[in-house]
From TrEMBL:
Source organism of the structure: Terasakiella brassicae
Ranges of residues in domain Histidine kinase: 329-548
Protein name as catalogued: histidine kinase
The organism's taxonomic lineage, starting at the top: Bacteria, Pseudomonadati, Pseudomonadota, Alphaproteobacteria, Rhodospirillales
The Response regulatory domain, residue ranges: 577-694
Listed Gene3D superfamilies: 1.10.287.130, 3.40.50.2300, 6.10.340.10, Histidine kinase-like ATPase, C-terminal domain
UniProt superkingdom: Bacteria
Length: 700
């Protein structure tokens, strides 16, 4: 049964119980029926109004509580609730009862005034004043209720805020109203009692019976009221207690559900809310568990991937280090015999004491050409390895394009004459811009392109060079009238050691020159490309960035240096001592033959670094030629002892070593060697350096 129906039935019972004594009094007091009927009618109306007034107040409060509970449980359902309409309807009902109550009291006052019943008239005046005061409180209650309804309709207040306003503004006024209404109710009863005493003689028996029934009715009404109160407050207390006990760890308890009244509906919804909350918490915990597992799995994969990448990087670094070590070792091992081959070949070719016949000279020239080719191959391999390892040093500066072209052409002009190929410089009448580049590296690229144009050309052919100015680059084109490249081989052009079918032919080459040129030009921020047709020739081009600031003090390639033949220069240092520290006998033989070309020199030899230092301290040579890699004391250690000794610290020391890697040369220069000559050495260059240091020493 609905709560509203229960309240209506309870009210009807209460009214019936309270009205029953008056009915008995009417039956037992037939002689005073008219007056008693009038009195009963007025008093019953006043009692009815007071009861209805209290009921209306209670209904408004119940509707407000219902609104706040629905807003707390389900805000969307709260928007569709009829509680707001019930509040407005009960307020109108309350105001109508108040107006009728005031009207009945005024009517009773007028009747008493007409009957000249001054005692009753004074009581009615007091009652009218109390009713009017009660109506004033009612208007205050209505105002507070309307303000609470505005907050509810605006949806700006939380249920807690609404409940706080209810307890602060509505509840106190309602309690005062109910208290005064109850007092008026009691006054009505007292008035009925007073008027009954006026008819004491006539209604003694009726009064006794009426009093008996009134007491009985009052007790019964109180019992009913207590029962109703318990039925209404028990579910609310259960809800309040359960709400206090609820926590994420305790979601198993539920409200008891029985019947179909509002409290049962509220209990079902509250239990459903707990079920949903429990399911959401379990779902969230499951999601958190899955997220943790996914994170752990991801972290494990990241660790495994990191370990794999680390192993791959370490393997790549080991492979790179092994390749560098191999190339360094290969360079050292190849340069040692090459040093003897080229050295003795140059001695035979340049010897004035034992000049060679023309046929022998051509054979020695072939030996020198083959040795230099092999040396160039070694140097290019080292250069390619340095580029791939990212160790190539680039010195960018503002460089005049004219100087780069002039220097590059000077390097290949002699070979072009020998090969009977004409070089046509089409840039002589132009004013070329400055380039942002490394002059030495760009010269290296252009010399490679020009050399290829000469090598793969025909007798009487041409190599043309010209430029095209672009927006922010200068395009340099080198075109030849040579054999060209077939279309099916063009994709392999920049691959290392790819000679495009010229292997074993008459044209010498290593197949890595263009590979190095491509890597260099890309490191300079430029591009390289070509166009070629079989049997018609090729046109290679490079694009080089322009310099945005012209710097006339930038690096400038020096013109080609012509090494004078020291054997014919007439320079003859006399009475000089040269100490050669070397552990390889073939190299000692070669250097002995070289020093024999220098007249007036005493040649000292040591095959051990420690003995070499000792000889230097005893003999005080004018120049020391020092190998680097020797058993026992290395060349670096020997140099350190020489520089630490006051007697030998000023003796010039030239490193002569097959360790020709860039880091080897740099290490030698940093260690303090006056010069660093790599094997196989150029005879004329070595003799020039020897004469240079011997000339600095005063003649003995």
């Amino acid at each position: 049964m609905k709560l509203r129906n229960k309240l209506i039935i309870s009210f009807i019972c209460l009214v019936g119980i309270l009205g029953f004594p008056f009915l008995v009094m009417v039956v037992t007091s037939q002689g005073s029926r008219d007056h008693i009927d009038k009195m009963v009618h007025v008093n019953v109306k006043e009692i009815e109004f007071s009861s209805n007034f209290n009921y209306a107040i209670q209904r408004v409060k119940s509707n407000l509580r219902e609104m706040m509970l629905e807003l707390l449980i389900d805000p969307k359902a709260a928007e569709l609730s009829r509680a707001r309409e019930n509040v407005e309807r009960n307020i109108e009902y309350l105001q109508r009862i108040g107006a009728e109550w005031q009207a009945i009291v005024e009517m009773d006052l007028a009747e008493n005034h007409k009957d000249q019943d001054f005692d009753a008239l004074n009581l009615e005046k007091e009652e009218l004043a109390e009713v009017r005061g009660l109506l004033v409180l009612m208007e205050k209650f209505v105002k507070a209720t309307n303000e609470l309804m505005e907050l509810y309709n605006d949806k700006v207040a939380t249920p807690a805020t609404l409940y706080e306003r209810f307890e602060k503004n509505v509840e106190p006024v309602s309690q005062i109203i109910q208290s005064k209404a109850f007092e008026l109710h009691k006054d009505a009863l007292n008035e009925a009692k007073r008027e009954g005493e006026a008819f004491e003689k006539e209604l003694i028996y009726a009064e006794q019976i009426t009093l008996l029934f009134v007491v009985f009715s009052f007790v019964l009404a109180c019992v009913i009221a207590v029962i109703i109160a318990l039925r209404m407050t028990t579910p609310l207390k259960q809800l309040s207690d359960l709400t206090a006990r609820i926590s994420p760890e305790n979601l198993e308890e539920r409200l008891p559900v029985g019947g179909n009244d509002e409290f049962s509906v509220l209990a079902r919804r509250f239990n459903a809310m707990l079920d949903l909350l429990k399911a959401n918490i379990e779902k969230r915990e499951e999601s958190e568990r899955k997220v943790i597992e996914a994170n752990n799995e991801l972290e494990q994969k990241v660790r495994e991937r990191t370990a794999t990448l680390k192993e791959a990087r370490e393997a790549a670094e080991r492979a790179s280090a092994a390749k560098t070590e191999f190339l360094s070792s290969m360079s050292h091992e190849l340069r040692t015999p090459l040093n003897a081959i080229l050295g003795f070949a140059q001695l035979l070719n340049q010897s004035r004491r034992f000049p060679l016949a023309e046929k022998q000279k051509k054979s020695v020239d072939q030996i020198i050409i083959g040795g230099k080719f092999l040396l160039a191959l070694i140097d290019q391999l080292l250069e390619l390895n340095k580029i791939e390892a990212g160790e190539m040093q680039i010195d960018l500066d503002c460089v005049a394009a004219e100087e780069v072209l002039a220097e590059s052409l000077s390097f290949v002009s002699a070979r072009a004459r020998d090969e009977k190929v004409m070089i046509v410089n089409m840039t002589q009448a132009e004013t070329l811009p400055y380039l942002r580049t490394d002059q030495t590296r760009l010269c290296q690229v252009l010399v490679n392109l020009l050399s290829n144009g000469i090598k793969y050309n025909k007798i009487g052919g041409e190599v043309r060079i010209w430029t095209e100015l672009q927006e922010d680059r200068l395009k340099i084109i080198v075109a030849d009238t040579g054999v060209g490249i077939s279309e099916e081989l063009q994709d392999k052009l920049f691959q290392p050691f790819e000679r495009l079918g010229h292997d074993g032919g008459q044209v010498e080459g290593t197949g890595i020159g263009l590979t190095i040129a491509k890597r260099i030009i890309e490191s300079l921020g430029g591009r390289i490309g070509f166009e070629s047709r079989k049997d018609e020739g090729s046109a290679f081009w490079v694009e080089v960035p322009l310099c945005d600031q012209i710097d006339n003090t930038g690096n400038i390639c020096l013109p080609d240096t012509v090494v004078e033949d020291v054997a014919q220069s007439g320079v003859r240092p006399l009475h000089r001592k040269i100490l050669y520290v070397e552990d390889n006998r073939e190299n000692i033989k070669l250097m002995t033959a070289v020093i024999q070309e220098v007249e007036g020199c005493e040649f000292l030899v040591s095959m051990d670094g420690a003995k070499g230092v000792k000889i230097a301290q005893e003999q005080r040579p004018d120049l020391i030629l020092m190998d680097i890699c020797m058993p026992g004391m290395t060349g670096f250690e020997a140099l350190k002892q020489l520089r630490a000794n006051p007697q030998t610290k000023d003796i010039p020391v030239i490193a002569v070593s097959a360790s020709a890697m860039p880091n080897d040369v740099q290490a030698g220069q940093e260690a303090g060697f006056d010069e660093y000559v790599t094997k196989p050495f150029d005879l004329a260059d070595l003799l020039t350096k020897i004469y240079h240091f011997l000339d600095r020493v005063p003649a003995g």
